[in-house]
Design brief:
About 35% of the residues lie in helices and about 15% in strands. The protein is α/β, with parallel strands linked by helices.
């Protein structure tokens, strides 16, 4: 049975209010939020369907309902933001150099914000990580969008106030228009040129930072240990994003 440590729970519990049932109202007593969260973590780790939740956890319908409420109210995003800013204040997050990348997750069911690709229908998980591989932004989008068009949307999910001085990506982010837009925001985009590019604009000295792009790939490797994010089964995109955010929360909690 998965358990949060007392220290981990105390760090995040303020974001998870307990359900309040008026005195004298008939029915079951509310389930403690900590037990609900630990049940969701079991689903996240195993990738199992909701009804397969072991009997040692609360009823799966209660767990699913509470999880959906957290996703709709952006509770998990608030937790992620607070943890990231606390780690930055402690010096454990260094955003001066950040790395951007995306990974594909197939979608076996229906639902909104799913796009067709040559690999089948699915979603893209976009992430910006710091120079330690810790998430600064995580978001999900239909898979048929090009990654260049999703960079600005990724910054809508950025969790700390200061944007990176240098943002490093692969050839998919080689775009003069993107370079210009980010430069106005004080961000230098560093990406190797595509093979068909005629006018070379990327400074070779800045491109030396590209050798550390494996940090973004390592984040996705960590993420994919959580089996529930390998395939999107959720009808609602905010629920799948909630699982991605929760997986990132578990990464940050290990830094305390």
């Amino acid at each position: 049975m998965l358990r949060l440590s007392d220290e981990q729970w105390e760090r995040i519990r303020a974001h998870f209010p307990e359900e309040n049932i008026p005195p004298g109202r008939p029915g079951r007593k509310p389930v403690p939020t900590r037990r609900v969260l630990e049940a969701v973590l079991w689903i996240l780790n195993t990738g199992a369907q909701w009804h397969m939740l072991p009997q040692s956890y609360p009823n799966y319908k209660t767990v699913h309902r509470r999880f959906q409420q957290w996703c709709q109210q952006e509770v998990l995003r608030e937790v992620l933001t607070e943890l990231a800013n606390t780690l930055r204040d402690q010096g454990d997050i260094d955003e001066r150099e950040a790395f951007i990348d995306a990974t594909f997750a197939s979608a076996k069911g229906g639902g909104d914000e799913i796009g067709p690709t040559r690999r089948g229908k699915g979603v893209k998980i976009m992430a910006i990580v710091d120079r330690h591989g810790l998430p600064l932004s995580v978001s999900t989008h239909a898979a048929n969008h090009h990654e260049v068009t999703l960079v600005q949307l990724s910054f809508d999910f950025y969790m700390i106030e200061a944007k990176p001085e240098h943002l490093i990506g692969n050839k998919a982010y080689d775009s003069d228009d993107l370079d210009s837009k980010l430069k106005k925001q004080g961000v230098e985009m560093i990406a190797p040129h595509r093979g068909n590019r005629k006018l070379k604009t990327q400074d070779g000295r800045a491109l030396r930072r590209y050798v550390r792009r494996w940090l973004a790939e390592r984040y996705f490797a960590w993420l994919q240990w959580k089996r529930r994010v390998l395939v999107r089964w959720e009808d609602y995109p905010e629920n799948f994003l909630g699982f991605v955010q929760l997986a990132s929360i578990t990464m940050l909690l290990k830094r305390f």
